[in-house]
């Protein structure tokens, strides 16, 4: 190389490297920027860890393409509660980014199809409500109106119980009550009046009444994951229509639904006392199946059966439900001790910490359901053989809820 040009090449190389280093320093994905301080409370640490894992909030739940989903809504709702306490703007920016990118200027929701009548799709309505309260952008209200419209037309059983999805006819799952009812109660109280609101609230309470009537096992106080009114599904008992097992996260969804809907159901509504009664029976039942570690098993009533394991998502949900219900005075104060034991179990059994402070929630059941293709039969073997992974949002969101309630 010509000696005249050599110094120029060296200078250019040095300049490019400096520029790239500066760019790296400013990047949101660097380990320096995204390290999570260990002096924060568990709730904020997990929220920041989720942002580190999924810089794009539309890809929460290990998604490859952006989509409107309950898992995004679950984690972002949890983050909104952390933001309320900490005012960490990184959290609000992350929450807003999801709503901004998934909800168009006219209020239409990307990837959402009302005609599917899928209760899971209602869950992100909670965080949309939060964004509307903060920003007052009309598009967020319009998106919520679409979710309300879905519930107005949701297919039902003969007694008015919502089908879990249009493609799952005559089926009520424990999951669906959590996905839809806290949002719908909040919506009714904020945007509806008089008899119109009462009609919605009565229908909300009816969903809990029907779960109690059909899904609850009177002997144990536990709840079966699904009930098929038609008794046509292979997973459904031909006499009762019930699925076969007490799945931890299924019951976790229901517990969170009970305690969260009470945030919005008026004090004078006749169904409120019934739901508090259901919550007390629920609490009494689940603490009987809490392991000595503080955690709960994937299949709740079979701790000794080979293959069963202590599972993080259900444990986080139970811990949150007990903590919030006790804090609110819905259940006796003694249950707070079970919640504290549950949180200790989470930390000891499931939490690991990276060198950069990012925390992981391990031993999460990745997904479980009933029916579908390939067919899910609801057997013990089915539940214990579904994928187990770390940092599933169905665990990280409830973990944040629980940590907030216990001020950990």
UniProtKB/TrEMBL annotation:
Q: Which UniProt keywords apply?
A: Hydrolase
SUPFAM superfamilies in the record: Six-hairpin glycosidases
Cross-referenced Gene3D superfamilies: 1.50.10.10
Q: Which residues form a coiled coil?
A: none
Q: Does the keyword Hydrolase apply?
A: yes
Q: Which BP terms in the Gene Ontology apply to this protein?
A: carbohydrate metabolic process
Q: Which Gene Ontology molecular function entries are recorded, alphabetically?
A: hydrolase activity
Tree of life domain:
Bacteria
Name listed for the protein in its UniProt record: Glycosyl hydrolase family 88
